[in-house]
Amino acid sequence: MAFPELEDVLRAIGIDIWLPIPMFGLMVGIAFFTGKWLATKEARRIMPALDPEFMNNACLYGFLAGLLGARLFHILEYPGEFLADPKAMLLSRGGFTIFGGLIVGSLTAAWYARRKGAPIPLLLDAAAPGLMLAYAIGRIGCQISGDGDWGIAVTSPAPAWLPDWLWAQTYAGNIAHVSIPAPGVYPTPIYETIMSTLAFAILWRVRRQSHAPGWLFGLYLLLAGVERFLVELIRVNSTYSLFGLAVTQAQLISTGCIVAGLVVMWRRAAPRPA
């Protein structure tokens, strides 16, 4: 089952009330405030003299720009659908590409930091755990609402050790208004939430280790890239032909994240100066 609005969730547990709040938007909001709180907490630990309002502003600008970037990259991924009905795609409650949000949002926050003369590598380190946790929470919204970010059709029974709902779902009543025949598709948002939560745990565990500024963000890029590349193997997405291979936009970007993450970690491996 999918629950596009909060009232659908409440109705499923026996509470019949009119509350048309989109679940995807609600979870994105929770993800933003959780990530912002964590990033601000880490920024104060790393840079005690930093203006408390700076991180709030940087997160807000990054979030707003990220929403535009997520929509833009979705349009670039499905140009045919956009040209066929631009208004429908622009005003849809779905249709956001997470990597587009990450790229545009991070660049905007970095631009703001540069204008204010703040140390960008340290700020990126402070933001890394919060970004990963926010992504994990955001994917819960994709799962609950059934926004189309699911996997390919399942063609084999679930392993004996795995619950059926974790192997295949039909997302009945999904916000994308797509009918999925049984046994269903892979619930990839759940997989992404699990992997991103584990990645967050790694970032949180090593964040106090001695490395040059920017190293932790490099690790974030590596983990985010690996996670997304793997899930794309069973995701439904538009593909491009590259050197005879069919690849998705997310696979191209995630590969770039992996390479960039490794390079940053290599170049920033030295301990922070005392």
Determine Rg (CA atoms, Å). 19 Å
Note poorly predicted spans: none
The number of strands is 2
What percent of residues are in strands?
under 5%
Mean pLDDT: 88
Biggest sheet, open or closed, and with what strands and sense?
A: 2 strands, antiparallel
End-to-end gap: 54 Å
Q: Tell me the domain tally.
A: 1
Order of helices and strands: HHHHHHHHHHEEH
**Globular, elongated, flat, extended or rod-shaped: what is the shape?**
globular
Structural class: mainly alpha
Proportion of helical residues = 55-70%
Give the strand order, joined by hyphens, for the main sheet: 1-2
Number of helical elements:
11
Key features?
11 helices; mainly alpha; 274 residues; globular
Give a short summary of the structure:
With 274 residues, the chain is mainly α. Helix content is 63%, strand content 3%. Helix 2 crosses helix 3 (52-77), helix 6 runs antiparallel to helix 7 and helix 7 (120-145) runs antiparallel to helix 9.
Please, could you describe this protein's structure?
The protein is mostly helical. It has one domain. It is built from 11 helices and 2 strands; from the N terminus they run H-H-H-H-H-H-H-H-H-H-E-E-H. The chain has a two-stranded antiparallel sheet. The longest helix has 26 residues. The protein is globular, with a radius of gyration of 19 Å.
Write the layout of secondary structure elements.
Elements: H1 6-12, H2 23-46, H3 52-77, H4 79-84, H5 86-91, H6 98-115, H7 120-145, H8 164-167, H9 188-206, H10 215-232, E1 239-242, E2 245-248, H11 249-267
Antiparallel strand pairs: 1-2
